[in-house]
Specification:
Layout lengths: L4 H7 L15 H19 L9 E6 L2 E4 L16 E2 L5 E3 L8 H10 L4 E5 L2 H7 L21 E2 L7 H11 L4 E4 L3 E6 L2 H22 L11 H11 L6
Parallel strand pairs: 6-7
Antiparallel strand pairs: 1-2, 1-5, 2-3, 3-4, 5-8, 7-8
Length: 238
């Protein structure tokens, strides 16, 4: 299911994620790719990613669409789609997949995730160097399944890092990666992104509160968080 080389070449340099879907890319993957690129660009526009750090993926059936390695998101077009199967074999595109592919595949093999956002967000990365678990500074921790854990450091792109991340994600939809960044997942790209943004915001709040001289932030108890978790089940439109 690779894109013919001629199509891949003519697609290079396009700045839009929309537009006609080149021959060789199924329509369902083309739409998902456009949404993935839009989400990736949002991470840079909203300051969660600098340069080509971080990555985004979405699962469509047995194909995992991922951002390519080392390519600025504003240069990606419809013909630049990159896809792999759940074993990591490339089945779509000519660009090399993200170096963090082991983390993405580990999540898809172990959860019901349909989308993943990984960032190097400033405040969350700072917190990852200070604690083993994000302090319960706000009830939005409930949206991530509970207190957010910090996965031990390991070399980026390694199976070791993927294993640490999975352990930190147990019962959660997001975690911090020590001296590295964040990873969240969801049933949609919008949900995965929102969880990333909420996690970065919580880390920023805790850093701001804990920096006040002579004061210690009040934290929620597990019981208080459990109350929120129960109430959260009915949140939003039905």
């Amino acid at each position: 299911m690779r894109v013919p080389e001629e199509d891949a070449r003519t697609a290079r340099g396009r700045t839009g994620a929309g537009g006609p879907i080149p021959p060789g890319i199924p329509a369902d993957l083309g739409g998902a790719w456009a949404e993935l690129v839009a989400t990736a660009r949002r991470t840079t526009a909203e300051g969660l990613v600098v340069g080509t750090s971080g990555n985004v993926s979405a699962r469509v059936g047995d194909v995992v669409l991922v951002t390519p390695s080392g390519v600025p998101y504003d240069r990606l077009g419809p013909g630049d789609a990159v896809g792999v199967d759940l074993d990591g074999r490339q089945v779509l595109g000519e660009l090399v997949p993200t170096s963090e592919l082991p983390m993405h595949l580990a999540v898809y093999r172990s959860t019901d995730a349909a989308a993943i956002v990984h960032t190097h967000a400033v405040h969350a990365t700072a917190v990852s160097t200070l604690v083993d678990e994000v302090p319960l500074i706000h009830y939005m921790a409930a949206a991530l399944g509970g207190p957010v854990r910090v996965a031990p450091y390991a070399l980026y792109g390694s199976e070791e890092l993927a294993a640490h991340m999975l352990a930190a994600l147990d019962g959660r939809t997001g975690c911090l990666l020590r001296n590295h960044g964040t990873l969240t997942y969801g049933t949609t790209l919008d949900q995965a992104y929102d969880r990333t943004a909420q996690l970065e915001w919580m880390c920023r709040v805790w850093l701001a509160a804990s920096a006040v001289p002579g004061r210690t932030p009040t934290l929620l108890t597990p019981q208080r968080l459990a109350e929120v978790t129960e109430k959260y089940r009915g949140y939003g439109q039905r």
